[in-house]
């Protein structure tokens, strides 16, 4: 079968890489893809925008595409699944109505309240003045979130009331465009975050391996939030006992609440949790797609064929699938970023060292890369590469990832040197 993967990041490279391990997959086409997918055997790029629904549909119909997998949240929120399904195509990813669970934090909060999903106390505002008044009464620290999609950068953990008010002003003054038409203000939870990605056919929902991301740009989890500077799986803090609670109190309650609203949700449901020091948890947010960089550590551990899971979801047969099987050990990924990220950075810098990284045992997933006119791989984004290691334990996986990233070179490359510090003790 031929599969079309929509997106251009490390997540999409990892999806294509995993699919091509199956002898059932003849070809993967990435739209628009990146420098890694352009050079991977069995894969090719199609230079269309992710919101060119008509162009994507025309290509898929005319080129016998059997399955479309949507990577990013934006086309899902804009209704790409609905559009392509109306053209007779099989699509993995929730419809526009279901994608609201990520596209609107206020919508997701209301759904969690209906479902009885444990989450932080919050309030929603469409104007700055009442939002600031709420902050004055609630105090700091407090969390300010742009309601809509802001590429993972619309959240401010304000340590003071002044910081909170400044964040509110920035949102309502257009820092995140239409994503900031309203704000969600939440109590500040403390603990460790963990990512629970689950796969669902709208009736049955099964968790994948729990992963832990490193969102801050600086070592020791300092500095600005990013899309993620590294990750590992399985996250030990998500114990079997905690995962059993997540299954019943989060995943199943959420699917039932979606059903009650008449939403047929098929795809990934990704719950970001905060686990408190006493072991309790709250849901911080939901996402409607594979996480990035979590996918780059989850898929290398997956033994069950990915296409089997995806087709079971589309055909609403997940409940008849055998248990998902996983490799033993651990996976870890380290992000190589452009200097200046998550602020301003320069693109177009030549990247070398891929062969040496592979010799070190690492797998390199391209994120912000492209091929230049002379077919060199160059930087084309803030997060440039995900260098992933596998091992019998976290020490081995991280050692392999860091051996790989030390082989990579491009001007002003930056990466955190403490990914996995929690699991290394």
From TrEMBL:
In short, the EC number is 6.3.4.13
Among the Pfam families in the record, one is GARS_N
GO biological process terms, alphabetically, are: 'de novo' IMP biosynthetic process; purine nucleobase biosynthetic process
Q: What's the cofactor?
A: Mn(2+); Mg(2+)
The keyword tRNA-binding is annotated on this UniProt entry:
no
**Which pathway or pathways does this protein act in?**
Purine metabolism; IMP biosynthesis via de novo pathway; N(1)-(5-phospho-D-ribosyl)glycinamide from 5-phospho-alpha-D-ribose 1-diphosphate: step 2/2
Residue ranges occupied by any ATP-grasp domain in the UniProt entry = 109-315
Q: Which reaction does it catalyse?
A: 5-phospho-beta-D-ribosylamine + glycine + ATP = N(1)-(5-phospho-beta-D-ribosyl)glycinamide + ADP + phosphate + H(+)
Q: Which GO terms label this protein's molecular function in UniProt?
A: ATP binding; metal ion binding; phosphoribosylamine-glycine ligase activity
- Stated name of the protein: Phosphoribosylamine--glycine ligase
UniProt source species: Dolichospermum compactum NIES-806
């Amino acid at each position: 079968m031929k599969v079309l993967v929509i997106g251009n990041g490390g997540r999409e490279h990892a999806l294509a890489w995993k699919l091509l391990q199956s002898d059932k997959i003849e070809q993967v086409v990435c739209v628009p893809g990146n420098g890694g997918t352009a050079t991977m055997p069995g894969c090719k790029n199609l230079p269309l925008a992710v919101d060119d629904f008509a162009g994507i549909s025309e290509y898929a119909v005319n080129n016998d595409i059997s399955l479309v997998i949507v990577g990013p949240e934006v086309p899902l929120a804009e209704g790409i699944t609905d559009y392509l399904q109306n053209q007779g195509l099989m699509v993995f990813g929730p419809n526009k109505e279901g994608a609201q669970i990520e596209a609107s934090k206020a919508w997701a909060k209301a759904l969690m309240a209906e479902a009885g999903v444990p989450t932080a106390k919050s309030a929603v505002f469409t104007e700055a003045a009442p939002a600031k008044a709420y902050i004055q009464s609630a105090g700091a620290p407090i969390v300010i979130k742009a309601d809509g999609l802001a590429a993972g950068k619309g959240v401010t953990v304000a340590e003071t009331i002044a910081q909170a008010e400044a964040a509110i002003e920035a949102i309502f003054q257009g820092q995140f465009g239409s994503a900031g038409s309203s704000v969600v203000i939440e109590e500040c939870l403390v603990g460790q975050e963990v990512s629970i990605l689950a796969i669902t056919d709208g009736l049955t929902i099964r968790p994948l391996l729990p992963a832990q991301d490193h969102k801050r740009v600086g070592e020791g989890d300092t500095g600005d939030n990013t899309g993620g500077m590294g990750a590992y799986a399985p996250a030990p803090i998500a114990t079997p006992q905690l995962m059993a609670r997540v299954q019943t109190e989060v995943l199943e309650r959420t699917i039932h609440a979606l059903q009650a609203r008449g939403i047929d949700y098929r795809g990934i449901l990704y719950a970001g949790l905060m686990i408190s020091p006493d072991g309790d948890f709250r849901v911080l947010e939901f996402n409607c797609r594979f996480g990035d960089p979590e996918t780059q550590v989850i898929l290398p551990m997956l033994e069950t064929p990915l296409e089997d899971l995806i087709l079971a979801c589309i055909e609403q047969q997940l409940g008849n699938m055998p248990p998902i099987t996983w490799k033993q050990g651990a996976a870890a990924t380290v992000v190589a970023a452009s200097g200046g990220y998550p602020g301003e950075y320069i693109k177009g810098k030549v990247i070398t060292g891929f062969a040496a990284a592979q010799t070190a045992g690492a797998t390199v997933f391209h994120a912000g890369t492209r091929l230049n006119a002379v077919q060199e791989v160059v930087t084309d984004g803030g997060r440039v590469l995900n260098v992933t290691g596998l091992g019998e334990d976290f020490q081995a996986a991280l050692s392999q990832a860091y051996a790989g990233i030390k082989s990579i070179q491009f001007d002003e490359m930056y990466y955190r040197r403490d990914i996995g510090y929690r699991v290394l003790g």
